[in-house]
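RECORD TYPE: inverse folding
INPUT: structure tokens
STRUCTURE:
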């Protein structure tokens, strides 16, 4: 028997345990996006005044959404990343829920986004980066409206567009 542990991104650790579900960090994780109904998701949003992008990346709120996918989800949902979660209109909440599921399903299908040093367990690159609409495209034209994508400071940075994400530039111009 061979055990091979490759952790290029330095996020992993190796443990020998009886029940992984008893790990404290596992117990603190929020629900998986595919385990939520739209009603559950809307209820979760209404309880939070945090800006929507960092909230989506908060693993205690919802599991599995990082910086890349949060940027893509919010762009596709046409939601300003700095909008407070509980300020989203009913329609925005529903579209956000749907886009979370669509983006993650597509990313899973394509093996993730190989940017920097991420690779699949097999060692092959993920293929989803070729579908990115905003992430990593700062200063380039939007595929939808042709305006230039702008990166603003918010956590790990966020990509916004004046026409595709209402209100992004009206409040956050340099």
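DESIGNED SEQUENCE:
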């Amino acid at each position: 028997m061979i055990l091979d542990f490759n952790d290029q991104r330095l996020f992993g650790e190796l443990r020998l345990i009886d029940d992984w579900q008893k790990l404290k960090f596992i117990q603190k994780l929020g629900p998986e996006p595919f385990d939520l109904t739209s009603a559950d998701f809307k209820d979760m949003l209404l309880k939070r005044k945090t800006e929507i992008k960092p909230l989506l990346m908060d693993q205690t709120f919802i599991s599995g959404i990082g910086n890349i996918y949060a940027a893509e989800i919010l762009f596709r949902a046409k939601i300003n990343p700095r909008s407070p979660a509980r300020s989203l209109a009913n329609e925005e909440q529903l579209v956000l829920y749907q886009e979370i599921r669509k983006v993650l399903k597509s990313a899973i299908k394509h093996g993730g986004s190989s940017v920097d040093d991420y690779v699949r367990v097999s060692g092959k690159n993920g293929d989803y980066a070729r579908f990115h609409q905003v992430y990593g495209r700062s200063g380039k034209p939007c595929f939808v409206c042709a305006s230039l994508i702008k990166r603003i400071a918010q956590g790990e940075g966020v990509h916004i567009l004046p026409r595709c994400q209402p209100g992004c530039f009206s409040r956050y111009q340099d």
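NOTES: Confidence is low (pLDDT under 50) at residues 167-174.
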